[in-house]
Design brief:
The protein is α/β, with parallel strands linked by helices. It has three domains: 222 residues, 3-Layer(bba) Sandwich (FAD/NAD(P)-binding domain), CATH 3.50.50; 111 residues, FAD/NAD(P)-binding domain; 114 residues, 2-Layer Sandwich (Enolase-like, domain 1), CATH 3.30.390.30. It is built from 14 helices and 22 strands. Strands 1, 2, 3, 4, 5, 6 and 17 form a seven-stranded mixed sheet that branches.
Length: 474
């Protein structure tokens, strides 16, 4: 096997493996290096997303949603069930099998697209006359390439002074593999991971308390959406505390005590069986040997890149969680494709203004573009249209009428500035809004498009109509 490549990609997460495949499609001789492995030691490409993030969390969310529906909502549909029980081992096994299918799928795609895959840790060895020498932990000889893409992803951030043991104090990894449903779970951080994992274990029977440092709930979302979400999640049974300041965390063999102050200054001791820490992620650059070749990192550990994902080194690029921008799998994928195309002289495209955000709770939450708080802060003149799922026929038929669609458009040009959804299948509905915004479309454009009936997507059309106060069904 040749040790000389046109491109070496370090990391086979969503950004890395997609970059490798696209580069190979464009005619480059590509190698991809990744260190993830299964329990049996076999390769597990896909990064955090496939192994301990996006994919397994959605599997657990779906399974726990079925369990919740069977216990609380089947009766509404005329389905009488009794003695519903949980086989947690099977639930976790199903999640693991889905992860393995994705791992194997990526290996198949590498083979199909003639990408050479190397299982091990990749690191910079030296600058060479023709590019870069890359060391692979599993190989005796270095690999060589003119171009290198760093796509090493991110790692969960630990709470200061509290180490992850993945038994009592859990990262997203440990939260996906709890062996028995705990009576009580504490979650530090009320963001995406905290809400999704909190929702999973709440549905399965745990008493879940979420501690969020920010003064308001879900401050990254539109204020109407976050207000609705807090109301719904609280009604479901999540105990959400905002504006808290954690002063101490004590871990024992079987429990954790979290001491915190609330917004009034009162101190509370929260005793829980498990503690999930979801306070963000840090770029994973350990092991790259970046200092040996002078790869520039910023003070937070991110690889420094320009708007085209170029680093300070010639023909070295970086994408995904290891660089600036939102830590989202789809953002990494878009950067991976763009960089592969730029390497061969094409004009790769990534528009940070139209990258959607999604929280896969029930109801789902999704948005793209600006929210009202941001537009008010900018002094931007805008108009708003909203439409509740309560007035949507398909939502009524599904038995899930929670939430609404909100469209924000420029007061003068009618260009769509943001779309915010809380409700059923928000993750799927947001794509139409992304498309409209990518082409600088207006609310009238959405309103004039024929949407199939009965569908949830009609709610987006109705919200767009409501921008001009001409909604037809509300």
């Amino acid at each position: 096997m040749s040790k000389q490549f046109d491109l070496i990609v370090i990391g086979a997460g969503p950004g890395g493996y997609i970059a490798a495949i696209r580069a190979s499609q464009l005619g480059l001789n590509v190698a991809c290096i990744d260190e993830w492995k299964n329990i049996d030691g076999t390769p597990a490409p896909g990064g955090t997303c496939t192994n301990v993030g996006c994919i397994p969390s959605k599997a657990l969310l779906q399974s726990s949603e079925h369990f919740d529906q069977a216990n609380h909502h089947f009766k509404e549909h005329g389905i009488e069930v009794s003695n519903v029980s949980l086989n947690l081992n099977n639930l976790i096994s199903r999640k693991n099998s889905i992860v393995k299918q994705n791992n194997d799928g990526i290996l198949y795609l590498f083979k199909k697209n003639k990408v050479s895959f190397f299982h091990g840790t990749g690191s910079f060895s030296a600058k060479t006359e023709n590019g870069w020498s890359i060391k692979v932990s599993s190989l005796k000889e270095d690999l060589h390439a003119k171009n290198v893409i760093v796509a090493t992803g991110s790692s969960p951030r630990e709470f200061p002074g509290v180490k992850f043991d993945e038994k009592i104090v859990l990262s997203n990894d440990g939260a996906l593999n709890i062996k028995d449903v705990p009576k009580t779970i504490g979650v530090i951080g009320g963001g995406v991971i905290g809400l999704e994992m909190g929702s999973v274990w709440r549905r399965l029977g745990s008493n879940v308390t979420i501690l969020e440092a920010m003064p308001e709930f879900l401050m990254s979302a539109d204020f109407q959406v976050s207000k609705e979400a807090l109301k719904v999640f609280t009604k479901q049974g999540l105990n959400i505390k905002v504006g808290v300041s954690i002063t101490d965390v004590k871990v024992s063999d079987k429990s954790v005590t979290v001491k915190y102050k609330d917004q009034s200054g009162s101190t509370t001791d929260l005793l829980v069986d498990k503690l999930i820490v979801s306070i963000g992620r840090v770029p994973h650059t350990k092991g790259l040997n970046s200092s040996s070749v002078g790869l520039l990192l910023d003070d937070r550990g991110f690889v420094v890149v320009d708007s085209h994902c170029k680093t300070n080194l010639s023909n070295v690029w970086a994408i995904g969680d290891v660089v600036r921008g939102p830590m989202l799998a789809h953002k990494a994928e878009e950067e991976g494709v763009a960089v592969a195309e730029r390497i061969v002289g094409q004009h790769g495209h990534v528009n940070f203004d139209t990258i959607p955000s999604v929280i896969y709770t029930s109801p789902e939450i999704a948005w793209v573009g600006k929210n009202e708080q941001e537009l008010k802060k900018e002094g931007h003149s805008y108009k708003v249209g909203t439409f509740p799922f309560l007035a949507n026929g398909r939502a009524r038929a599904l038995g899930d009428t929670t939430g609404f669609v909100k469209v924000i458009a420029d007061s003068n040009t009618d260009e769509v500035l943001g779309v915010h959804i809380i409700g059923p299948m928000a993750s799927e509905l947001i794509s139409e809004a992304v498309t409209i915004m990518e082409f600088k479309g207006s609310s009238e454009d959405i309103a004039r498009i024929c949407h199939a009936h009965p569908t949830l997507s009609e709610s987006l059309k109705e919200a767009a109509l409501a921008v001009d106060k001409r909604s037809l069904n509300f």
